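Protocol step 4 of 5: obtain the predicted structure for the target chain.
Materials: sequence only (see below). No template structures provided, no constraints applied. The aim of this step is simply to have a reference model before the mutagenesis design in step 5. Sequence pasted as it appears in the construct record:
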Amino acid sequence: QVQLVESGGGLVQAGGSLRLSCAASGRMFSYYGMGWFRQAPGKEREFVATISWNGGSISYADSVKGRCTISRDNAKNTVYLQMNSLKSEDTAVYYCASRSTRYSSGSALATLYAYWGQGTQVTVSS
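Step 4 output (structure tokens):
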């Protein structure tokens, strides 16, 4: 059974930084594209960042481009989201997700992800 466990969220002042982690277990992590999404209160889940199975392809939502960096360590079965220059509008629950197709690219489409973590809360105070 695939499990994704996010950590690293918390309360931070505007302008600060956080590093989210997503630890995967249950299958060979390195074969699959991964993504980060977020959902703010009263809003739909939205794409944040994605990385291909080998880290060779990365993309970001325009809202976080230049402020966030996604990376993965396949030896540790972990994907990261480094977030800098945080804004109040970044406040949300952040989810990591994994695709189910081997050697998959990343994707901004939530429907292409088969497995999701439980989420970690990020709150940015202004």
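Step 4 remarks: The chain has a mean pLDDT of 96. The first strand starts at residue 3 and ends at 7.
Proceed to step 5.
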